[in-house]
Design a protein that fits this description.
Elements: H1 2-18, E1 23-26, H2 37-46, E2 52-54, H3 67-84, E3 90-95, H4 97-107, E4 114-120, H5 130-136, H6 146-149, H7 158-162, H8 169-175, H9 179-182, H10 191-198, E5 203-208, E6 225-226, E7 232-233, H11 239-242, H12 248-253, E8 257-261, H13 274-280
Parallel strand pairs: 1-2, 1-3, 3-4, 4-5, 5-8
Antiparallel strand pairs: 6-7
Length: 286
């Protein structure tokens, strides 16, 4: 009897050892949980038994609601998941807008349980470009979009909350209620927490590529952005890195920041193409 019980306990320990962490997935703009179904299936094919929580709120046009509103609601969902996995923790994947909002969720959740955060082609340093804009606001052009987005009405939209016009940095700082704060460009009472919450991560994985076609500049997926002459400043030369506003420099120096660039991947292929998923996502899901 004791020999059988011992074998059962051993098998249980082995199964717990080889089990993969649960995964929380946050969808992109104008889509929803259904759009992430291929990614969910691929994760469970490659890592059988993985529990996947596919965030189901703010699908379709609701994804344009004010970013802070979405972030607070997603925080409540993530907390429920963390309460289910207090010991092993979870991994988190945020796609497109969901990667930016998902990162903010971690920042307002100081004792989150996320071990690896994967930002999949997300505008972490903001967005500025006609291609993306015309997907949502066909009549707007990037050159004049600030007139809408840098206003009280414009800040009621998620896109306005991370629209980063390099020609109007003063208006960006004056009106934007979201991105300059979660990037600690503007100080707030939560600035220290926003940085320390990201430093809880075992890994931050930033994924993007030059053929994305939506995130503009595509290097925003790596926290790089335009200067006023449309030159993209490398991450290591940007103030957010050199002054370590949100801990990116500390994460990199401690070997916890992974910057992934992959060519020939369009924006809507990152989460729907098996070889891309297997190459840039699966190696970081433990």
């Amino acid at each position: 009897m004791f020999r059988t019980l011992g074998a059962t306990v051993l098998l249980l320990k082995i199964s717990l050892t080889i089990a993969y962490r649960p995964v929380f997935i946050y969808h992109g703009i104008l889509t929803g949980a259904d759009s992430m179904g291929h990614l969910v299936n691929r994760i469970q094919e490659v890592h059988p038994g993985t529990v996947v929580y596919n965030f189901g709120r703010f699908g379709g046009w609701a994804s344009l609601i004010n970013a802070w509103h979405q972030v607070q609601a997603a925080h409540d969902n993530l907390k429920l998941v963390c309460d289910l996995h207090p010991d092993e923790g979870i991994n988190m994947i945020g796609y497109s807008q969901g990667g930016l909002l998902g990162r903010a969720v971690l920042q307002i959740y100081p004792d989150h349980c996320v071990k690896t955060f994967i930002s999949l082609s997300s505008p972490q340093a903001g967005q500025f470009g006609d291609d993306f804009l015309h997907l949502i606001f066909p009549s707007l052009v990037a050159r004049t979009a600030y007139e809408l987005f840098y206003s009280r009405v414009g800040q009621d939209t998620s896109v306005g909350n991370y629209w980063n016009d390099p020609h109007h940095p003063d208006l960006y700082e004056q009106y934007s209620i979201f991105l300059p704060y979660v990037n600690n460009q503007l100080p707030s009472v939560n600035s220290t927490q926003y940085r320390e919450a990201l430093l809880r991560l075992n890994r931050m994985v930033l994924i993007g590529g030059p053929d994305d076609g939506v995130i503009t500049p595509w290097q925003s997926s790596h926290f790089s952005f335009f200067d006023q002459k449309y030159n993209v400043l490398p991450l290591e030369e940007s103030v957010i890195y050199t002054e370590d506003w949100i801990g990116l420099k500390t994460l990199q120096e401690s070997g916890r920041l992974y910057i992934i660039e992959r060519q020939h991947v369009r924006h809507y292929q990152w989460h729907r193409t098996n070889d891309v998923i297997d190459d840039v996502i699966m190696p970081y899901l433990d």
